[in-house]
Amino acid sequence: MKVLFCHLGRENLGIEYLSSVLKQAGHRVSLAFDPGLFGINDNVFNITFLEKLFEQKKKVFEKILDFKPDIVAFSAYTDTYQWCCSIAERIKKELAAKIVFGGIHPTLVPERVMAKDFIDFVIVGEAEYSFLELLQSLESGQPIEQIKNLCFKQDGRIIKNELREPMEDISSLGFPDKELFEKDFNYRDDYLIITSRGCLFSCSYCCESFINRLYHNRFFRRRSVDSIMEELIYMKKRYNYRRVRFIDSVFFTDKKWLKALLERFKQEIGVKFWCFGKVQFLDEEVAELLRWAGCYGIEFGVQATNEDLRRAVLTRFETDEQNKKAFKICDDYKLRYDIDHMFGLPGEKEQDWIKAAEFYSRLKNLNRIKCHNLVYFPRLEIINAAKQDSILSEDDIENIEEGRIVGSFFHPYLNKDKESEKVKKDFENLYKMLPLFRPSWTGFIIGHRLYKIFHFIPSFLIMFLQVIVAFKGRDPRFMILTRYYLLYLRKRLKRVKFSN
User: Fold this and answer.
1) How far apart are the first and last CA of the chain?
2) Which domain holds residue 37?
């Protein structure tokens, strides 16, 4: 069958694995892709007037019509769900193709997604073999009632089949289908790989917590070192990449596995790499191993420097001492790192933001602070807590489950408190500039409450200063992203020139 994946955002490994499984079974697969540059989902540069210039919806639909698929599949996040629905609804009016939705948002609220009359099927959870079985059944005319993880409509009712057990050996999936995105991403700059599925932790705001509950805490699995190295060696010959990005939720949870992998990685691959980390797992032995093997950056999710707030609101149990110790180790071993900081936590106060600024200003090898808003996803623990505290109304929850985004993103706690939003903007701008400041400068700004004027700083100036931060820290990720944006700028200018 002819299957077309329709996607908004960055490279998607989940789609690549699905495509690989389908192609191995003889199905023809293609991709209609919109990078969503400068849009609401762009966490680097969100610029509305540029979003309209780079918008790709028309091109996406032209690709769909040209390919004439039997199946159009969407891997939907909560923040891309409305975009997916707009494309799917139009497809249903013009083509006879079946529409399949999978991904985290349909997994969270399958009944709500299936209620859309233009959606034929929803696949919950791990999708590779359920999707393959669906295609085989549609092609052969066999019944679909026994396909696990599948939701469908029958006589006006929504049917949810039972859940499939998570596959025991994720190494058996083979390599992701990198060919699918290779025209849109320069793999030579940055090769994306995942070495595990799931997460050991269940933070209240994170979709991984729902997956853990769904699979009774049996979803986390690691690939074998042999499987990872086979992929890296094969893709190195194919794309000659210069850097690798491990996008596991936490890369270094198992010291024995890590040592076995990195010893081979250093010898057989020999390029720089980036990863996600968690402070509980970073000790001097791990830091030395990471530096020796070529780690150029680690991203840590601190989210808040108020330990009580982290524990009560986010269900994160790392201590302030563990944070201090981990960053001290990174500083000692000259490992560069990014910190994720989250705004909009229920109960946070201005003093919490001041404390965070003071803490971050003392870190020596801090590359940048990535500022995020707390985003509410459907049916997570934090939804119940926010509802009990009257932070979320029933209308808010309805908007969340429908993926309707309010403001720059869905963070109603800040939207309802305009003064808090203003002060939050002050500190967000301060944090983005912080790596440029000496600790004494930050102390002066805080001591004289000069941060109170930071929300007046124009966005273009903050972006320029972020560029300075990146060059100061010689941040390879920023250089990669810069080339990525320039690639699409050239493509856009060519299209404009051709149309004229």
Assistant:
1) 38
2) 2-160
- Residues 372, 285, single domain; the answer is yes
Co-location of 127 and 215 in the same domain: no
Residue linked to tokens 């390919």: 67
Domain boundary among 358, 379, 413: 413
Q: What is the pTM of this model?
A: 0.92
Is residue 177 within 8 Å of residue 20, measured between CB atoms? yes
- Number of structural domains in the chain: 2
Handedness of CA 67, 73, 76, 81 (dihedral sign): positive
Give 167's contacts (C-beta < 8 A, 6+ positions apart). Answer: 126, 128, 129, 173, 221
Contacts of 311 (CB under 8 A, 6+ apart): 317
Boundary residue ending a domain (109, 128, 160): 160
120 and 230 in a single domain? The answer is no
Per-residue pLDDT of the chain (500 residues; tens, 9 = 90+): 999 999 998 899 999 999 999 999 999 999 999 887 666 665 556 656 666 666 778 889 999 999 999 999 999 999 899 999 999 999 999 999 999 999 999 999 999 999 999 999 999 999 999 999 999 999 999 999 999 999 999 998 999 999 999 999 999 999 999 999 998 888 999 999 999 999 999 999 999 999 999 999 999 999 999 999 999 999 999 999 999 999 999 999 999 999 999 999 999 999 999 999 999 999 999 999 999 999 999 999 999 999 999 999 999 999 999 999 999 999 999 999 999 999 988 888 999 999 999 999 999 999 999 998 888 999 999 998 888 888 888 988 999 999 986 554 455 554 556 777 888 899 999 999 999 999 999 999 999 999 999 999 988 888 888 888 888 877 877 777 777 777 766 666 655 444 44
Residue 210 and residue 262 in contact, taking contact as beta carbons nearer than 8 Å: no
Tokens of 275: 């990863």
135 with 35, same domain?
yes
The answer to whether position 406 is within a domain reads yes
Distances (CA, A) of 60 to 7, 30, 55, 168, 312: 9, 12, 10, 36, 43
Distance of CA 335 to the CA centre of its chain: 23
Is there a single domain that holds both residue 75 and residue 196?
A: no
Q: What is the CA radius of gyration of the chain?
A: 23
Domain containing residue 125: CATH number: 3.40.50.2300
Strand ranges for 63-217 from DSSP E: 71-75, 98-102, 121-123, 150-154, 157-160, 191-193, 196-197
